[in-house]
């Protein structure tokens, strides 16, 4: 079992370049944190909504990552929007249960 942290923020229309900049910055930071497993990003440019899904080994890793990442994201977003980001944490069930990282997202031949 591992954990996922889903962060959602809204920038507005025509802000994809800003979303890409923020994604690159926070992807780099998250990869340096203990317990990091991976990131997936969702961009909905027509609505200006963006999401980041991070995977972590333990709940302690999620909480530490959140303490590091979320205040920085809030600070950065203040430059572009008045809307506050929101987040949720989930327990991840991997039906393959073989201990591999994100095996449910890999293709085998």
Walk me through the structure.
Helices cover 32% and strands 30% of the residues. The chain has a four-stranded antiparallel sheet, covered by helices on one side. The protein has a single domain (2-105), classed as Alpha-Beta Plaits (2-Layer Sandwich). The model has no long low-confidence stretch (mean pLDDT 90). It has 109 residues and is an alpha+beta fold. The chain contains two helices and four strands, in the order E-H-E-E-H-E. Helix 1 packs antiparallel against helix 2 (59-77).
Helix-strand blueprint:
Layout lengths: L1 E9 L5 H16 L4 E9 L4 E8 L2 H19 L8 E7 L17
User: Per CATH, what is the topology?
Assistant: Alpha-Beta Plaits
Overall shape: globular
Cα distance spanning the termini: 25 Å
Radius of gyration, whole Å:
15 Å
Largest sheet: 4 strands, antiparallel
CATH architecture: 2-Layer Sandwich
The CATH class is identified as Alpha Beta
Overall mean pLDDT stands at 90
Structural class of the secondary structure composition? alpha+beta
Helix content: 25-40%
Tally of alpha and pi helices: 2
Can you write the helix and strand succession as a string?
EHEEHE
Number of strands: 4
Uncertain residue ranges: none
Strand percentage lies at 25-35%
Number of domains: 1
Strand order of the largest sheet: 2-3-1-4
């Amino acid at each position: 079992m591992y954990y996922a942290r889903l962060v959602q923020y809204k920038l507005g229309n025509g802000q994809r370049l800003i979303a890409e900049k923020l994604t690159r910055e926070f992807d780099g930071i998250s990869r340096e944190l203990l317990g990091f497993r991976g990131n997936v990003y969702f961009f909905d440019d027509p609505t200006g909504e963006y999401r980041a899904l991070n995977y972590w080994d333990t709940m302690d890793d999620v909480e530490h990552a959140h303490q590091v990442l979320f205040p920085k994201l809030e600070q950065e977003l203040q430059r572009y929007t008045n809307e506050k980001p929101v987040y949720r944490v989930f327990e991840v069930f991997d039906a393959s249960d073989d201990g591999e990282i994100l095996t449910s997202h890999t293709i085998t031949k």
